[in-house]
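Saturday, quiet lab. Running sequence design on the structure tokens for the scaffold JK sent over.
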């Protein structure tokens, strides 16, 4: 028994968490749904890896901007007082206007990274996961990702190292950030496998080039500036490097030269001798960099992929029918037309329905090292799965090529206690919006509270904030069918909402995201 347990934990068979979980589901998708079907979108900015907001042949690459932005955001950390760290404080103009943060790379990064809307994920987590995806998709090693970063409400204390500072200042600066002198050499080499020094912000380091293939005159740190590899070390050791912070004409700003040689080249030689050692060292140091957060911030466990993960689940009450839609992802699976996938749907009446699931698409992660196969929960040539509202649904299990997938026996719970009702409708579909959200509440659930949470609401600094709108209990219950009654609220905005409830002090999370503009929201019948 003991050895069996060891065997399973070594293989990582146990799920990282039990689905569903609002925050962990969102972090898991951001981390693992990288390319292809249902990709969250970050990788689209860095594949191919010489993609740059400034254009191809600009000499710049988004991947380099993202890595530098993450470092400069973290580099304000102070291990003594616990302030600073990866908290997206770099989004404040007080920081980007400092001499230690020259160039447009930070703005560009934030524009790209925050263009991906993900509820329940902070900007700092998006920056961290985007950095990991960029590195992994551009030749780099897999990097463990933890979520839970908290966005700063204002700028941090200055402290990003600059090239004209001396070696002792850099050692002291990295020590303040929490890194030893050896780790400093590693982190600088790992970062400077990407990108280079641009002429405009650093005219004294990078000369004008007048090169149509490098329109912004970026002096690259190595010959493969958009690709992770140990060339930054091999070229340095062989004396062929063009790294502008090593062979720059002004020795005052040759900070990489001082840092790389600070231990007699021992670390750089080990990187040049072994691409594997370089990759594994960088995986550790990048993770350390991204996990350096202000004191008090609690990061999650490493987000590993769920082997089986339902996704985009939506339930809509339509008369006597509960319409269900969604998809399920199977990790480490490629497309296979011979595969059979069944969903076993358990209901309140003790019944089980057996549904054959059609394939929906495939996705990949970490530059193609992982594959996932997606299936739709909706039968072929239908838009939703029609369930009997009285029986409802309590959970899902899946059978893949004869093997039962039920999350170790607990199944995949589906809540049908509070669901969107298709009697919801609008009377004005332009500003000022006027619409009514009808929530079908299962009889006998007796929620103490039904409420809507607004999706994507932020404060003036871009931080996600919780906005909840209570749906008042009906004065007189309006039955939608034998087993559900309607709770209604009149709305006057264009936002999207999730339906939630409190039952016996527990939070019940609806999977629906509905609002004005939601598919299926129709015009209210005009009274005559
Ligand atoms: C003493 C420490 C460091 C100094 C003095 C330094 C200095 C510089 C300078 C002057 C640039 C040019 C920026 C521009 O042209 O806009 C640069 C670029 C870059 N740095 Fe560093 N750096 C240091 C450490 C790091 C670390 C630890 C990382 C990440 C782990 C990093 C990642 C990058 C990246 C990816 C770029 C390229 C940006 C691009 O091409 O858009 N640097 N660094
Ligand atoms: C620009 O790059 C292309 C190949 O990518 C090369 O053929 C061309 O000679 C380069 N032009 C200059 C001016 O270096
Ligand atoms: C070299 O760089 C330093 C720091 O930026 C600057 O003060 C100095 O004037 C530069 N020297 C020359 C010769 O340009
Ligand atoms: C480190 O390597 C560089 C590049 O090969 C070389 O120029 C330098 O002299 C070496 N420094 C030490 C201390 O070994
Ligand atoms: C589900 O249905 C398929 C045929 O459509 C059948 O082969 C399979 O045994 C059924 N599974 C269960 C658990 O009933
Ligand atoms: C549906 O409602 C009827 C009438 O209240 C009730 O008898 C029945 O048990 C309910 N069905 C389920 C599956 O909860």
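Result came back. Writing it out in full:
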């Amino acid at each position: 028994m003991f050895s069996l347990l060891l065997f399973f934990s070594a293989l990582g068979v146990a799920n990282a968490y039990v689905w569903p979980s609002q925050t962990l589901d969102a972090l898991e998708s951001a981390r693992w749904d990288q390319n292809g079907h249902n990709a969250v979108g970050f990788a689209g900015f860095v594949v191919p890896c010489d993609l740059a907001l400034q254009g191809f042949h600009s000499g710049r690459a988004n991947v380099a901007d993202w890595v530098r932005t993450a470092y400069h955001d973290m580099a304000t950390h102070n291990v003594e007082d616990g302030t600073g760290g990866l908290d997206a404080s770099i989004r404040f103009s007080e920081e980007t206007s400092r001499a230690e943060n020259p160039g447009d790379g930070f703005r560009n990064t934030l524009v790209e990274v925050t263009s991906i809307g993900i509820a329940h994920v902070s900007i700092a987590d998006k920056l961290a996961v985007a950095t990991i995806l960029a590195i992994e998709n551009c030749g780099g090693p897999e990097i463990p990702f933890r979520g839970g970063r908290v966005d700063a409400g204002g700028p941090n204390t200055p402290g990003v190292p600059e090239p004209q500072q001396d070696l002792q200042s850099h050692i002291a600066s990295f020590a303040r950030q929490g890194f030893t002198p050896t780790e400093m050499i590693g982190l600088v080499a790992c970062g400077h496998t990407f990108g280079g020094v641009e002429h405009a912000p650093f005219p004294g380091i990078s000369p004008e080039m007048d090169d149509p293939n490098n329109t912004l005159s970026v002096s690259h740190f190595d010959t493969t500036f958009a690709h992770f590899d140990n060339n930054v070390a091999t070229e340095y050791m062989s004396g062929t490097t063009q790294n502008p912070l090593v062979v720059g004409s002004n020795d005052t700003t040759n900070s990489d030269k001082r840092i790389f040689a600070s231990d007699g080249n021992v670390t750089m030689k080990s990187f040049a001798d072994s691409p594997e050692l370089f990759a594994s060292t960088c995986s550790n140091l990048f993770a350390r960099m991204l996990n350096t957060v202000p004191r008090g911030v609690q990061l999650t466990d490493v987000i590993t992929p769920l082997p089986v993960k339902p996704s985009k689940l939506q339930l809509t009450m339509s008369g006597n029918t509960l319409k269900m839609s969604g998809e399920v992802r199977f990790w480490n699976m490629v497309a296979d037309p011979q595969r059979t996938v069944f969903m076993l749907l358990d209901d309140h009446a003790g019944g089980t329905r057996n549904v054959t699931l059609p394939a929906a698409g495939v996705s990949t992660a970490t530059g193609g090292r992982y594959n996932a196969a997606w299936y739709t929960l909706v039968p072929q040539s239908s838009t939703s799965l029609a369930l009997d509202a009285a029986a409802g649904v309590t959970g899902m299990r899946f059978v893949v090529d004869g093997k039962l997938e039920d999350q170790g026996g607990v199944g995949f719970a589906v809540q049908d206690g509070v669901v969107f009702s298709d009697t919801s409708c609008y009377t004005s579909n332009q500003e000022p919006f006027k619409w009514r959200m009808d929530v079908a509440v299962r009889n006998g659930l007796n929620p103490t509270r039904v409420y809507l949470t607004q999706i994507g609401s932020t404060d003036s600094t871009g931080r996600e904030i919780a906005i909840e709108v209570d749906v008042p209990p009906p004065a007189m219950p309006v039955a939608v069918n034998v087993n559900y009654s309607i709770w209604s609220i009149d709305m006057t905005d264009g936002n999207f909402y999730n339906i939630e409830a409190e039952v016996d002090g527990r939070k019940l999370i609806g999977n629906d995201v509905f609002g004005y503009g939601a598919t299926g929201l129709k015009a209210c019948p005009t009274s005559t």
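Notes for JK: The radius of gyration is 26 Å. The chain has three domains: 5-13+306-413, 22-290, 418-523. Ask whether to fix the surface positions before the next round.
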